[in-house]
Amino acid sequence: xxxxxxxxxxxxxxxxxxxxxxxxxxxxxxxxxxxxxxxxxxxxxxxxxxxxxxxxxxxxxxxxxxxxxxxxxxxxxxxxxxxxxxxxxxxxxxxxxxxxxxxxxxxxxxxxxxxxxxxxxxxxxxxxxxxxxxxxxxxxxxxxxxxxxxxxxxxxxxxxxxxxxxxxxxxxxxxxxxxxxxxxxxxxxxxxxxxxxxxxxxxxxxxxxxxxxxxxxxxxxxxxxxxxxxxxxxxxxxxxxxxxxxxxxxxxxxxxxxxxxxxxxxxxxxxxxxxxxxxxxxxxxxxxxxxxxxxxxxxxxxxxxxxxxxxxxxxxxxxxxxxxxxxxxxxxxxxxxxxxxxxxxxxxxxxxxxxxxxxxxxxxxxxxxxxxxxxxxxxxxxxxxxxxxxxxxxxxxxxxxxxxxxxxxxxxxxxxxxxxxxxxxxxxxxxxxxxxxxxxxxxxxxxxxxxxxxxxxxxxxxxxxxxxxxxxxxxxxxxxxxxxxxxxxxxxxxxxxxxxxxxxx
Amino acid sequence: xxxxxxxxxxxxxxxxxxxxxxxxxxxxxxxxxxxxxxxxxxxxxxxxxxxxxxxxxxxxxxxxxxxxxxxxxxxxxxxxxxxxxxxxxxxxxxxxxxxxxxxxxxxxxxxxxxxxxxxxxxxxxxxxxxxxxxxxxxxxxxxxxxxxxxxxxxxxxxxxxxxxxxxxxxxxxxxxxxxxxxxxxxxxxxxxxxxxxxxxxxxxxxxxxxxxxxxxxxxxxxxxxxxxxxxxxxxxxxxxxxxxxxxxxxxxxxxxxxxxxxxxxxxxxxxxxxxxxxxxxxxxxxxxxxxxxxxxxxxxxxxxxxxxxxxxxxxxxxxxxxx
Lengths: 505, 323
Hints:
Largest sheet of chain B: none
Helix content of chain A: 25-40%
Structural class of chain B: mainly alpha
CATH class of the largest domain in chain B: Mainly Alpha
CATH topology of the largest domain in chain A: Dipeptide-binding Protein, domain 3
Number of strands of chain B: 0
CATH topology of the largest domain in chain B: MetI-like fold
Number of domains of chain A: 3
Shape of chain B: flat
Number of helices of chain B: 14
Order of helices and strands of chain B: HHHHHHHHHHHHHH
CATH architecture of the largest domain in chain B: Orthogonal Bundle
Distance between the termini of chain B: 7 Å
Strand content of chain B: under 5%
Number of domains of chain B: 2
Radius of gyration of chain B: 25 Å
Shape of chain A: globular
Oligomer: heterodimer
Number of strands of chain A: 21
Distance between the termini of chain A: 41 Å
Radius of gyration of chain A: 25 Å
CATH superfamily of the largest domain in chain B: MetI-like
Largest interface: A-B, 45 and 50 residues
């Protein structure tokens, strides 16, 4: 009897060793909201979805656009017709073949107003999609739109299985099916999402057998998971924990720059922010390097342009050095030798160290005579109050962030600085308006020539910078704790984390 | 007995209705536009309007005079958000989450069992620690044991639960590796959260047990029992404790009700997927249907627990009769 038990135990052990799964465990800050790519608006959902569903084009971490599910493209002379040739031999996780019909199905669904998908506007200029042949798709745009391919890299335009969407209907959000290297296995709400490697993936097979995404809102708990090894990766490391975790023999903290710019905008319809000298004075009064070093532990990059590096169209256009003397001088010139009072709005807990940065700014402004009273609101209320039209808007000065998720300067500049985008119609809450900037941005989105576009964006950003349209602060970096036994894990500037090339040493 | 139970349940309906009206109103009075939260900051005014219509938020809250004047139909007066909510509720439809598009019942079903598990675990911890501690303190008043129990209760009730929880994780999970850090799954996952959450309740129950027992022990019949020569153990277990139970049961019921409301801080620290976390996430996202549904569920839980407490009174105290 004992012998039988021993053999049985040995077999079990061998069996478990043979099927030992190498699963990468990633601890995120929140649970996904939905896994239907078209409906996703938050980073954790986009991260998970990026493993399951793929887009026609991909934005590499270095900022270049490369074909993914597409192979090549052609643009008509007037820039309005984009013909895209698709990759062949690709299947969805449920066996449905990937082809032009599938692409058309997805794009039509994405654009359907009845679905009211938030990111629908990314393809707002697409008038129609045609199937030319089994592997060729044609997009007919209503106007020329140069950043079109950049917009096709966004996760919400991923191509998902038409069969699955039609079969699952309302429940598709809990049963995503794509062409990616990992297929969906299960989702325990509020806890974790499990993915397994897709054996028939068209590309390079991942070096792991699956991924588990944990939802851990409490930062200390998230770090504890990676310290005990219960997670291999923990995202959003608080700046104060970086030194401690880096010193840990089995953990490295990765610092990757991101595409999110943090700034404090001026309301250009309210005095005294109508005076450029006041705006420049404030830019010189704030020590951004000090903030970056002490509040953010070096995990940020003081701004030298309205958009972050790594974005197409970025060039450094200037830097407002910390100079309180110059600030006081400019204020005096503008008629405020003794400073003035204003209200500074800030969110709390939305961006890394947001309220602490606001408090630092408040004290730096006080040094040059500007008394700023801080008003903070919960996020939903904050969004509402800052979004009001100019004639009823009470907010003179407020902190916000903007992530240029398409990697193209058009997305980082047009919604924030163009006159047509003034709130509440768009996101230009500062009511900045400059006819020349408008013309440059219009031209840059119409003209497909990349070097011309870069020049146009440089010119536009130079005007915006010299105009001190905002109090420019910094672009956020992403701090991620990764255990040393994991290599190849990618932290993408668009705040997604990719396990496609990860492997255990 | 059962008729009493159902009669009490029926009598609770106005209370439940009151809760529904209040939460319906409060969540709409808070600043913040659900359509904006759902569609996102990048949404155009057209998409926002479409979203508002889809969510039924373009209708008035309680009375629709505009529709009435337009159509001349008295029924149109009630074409409002509240009517829609009540009508759906009567059919058992709590609507769908605006955030995830899942039915509210499904969402509640995903998170409620976890809250139940944690509340029960915490309650067991609280009772296992609180009652014996209170008993010992009452039986040996003003001794060192009593002081320790009182001090322990003070610490237990003053300690912030998230602070204690984080310390417990850092010590027992990270340093010693005895328990998993976070999440829900095995019994091992329940230990630290239940202790963190139960500590506060244990303190309260200990104090209540102590004071109730002290009062009972000073009663004449206890003196009689002692004079008769009964052993101390018998005096306590057979005569005194049962009579001290009523206030203890009351406080236990109230504590359990509070725990059922969702221990948000504990859930956040330990990543325990309960109703508290769901409620906070939904409030921040202005997800009206889920907020309404979750608060309704919590109110009903509270009422049912209080009813059960009342039933237990009858079992403990033979003087209480229900008809």
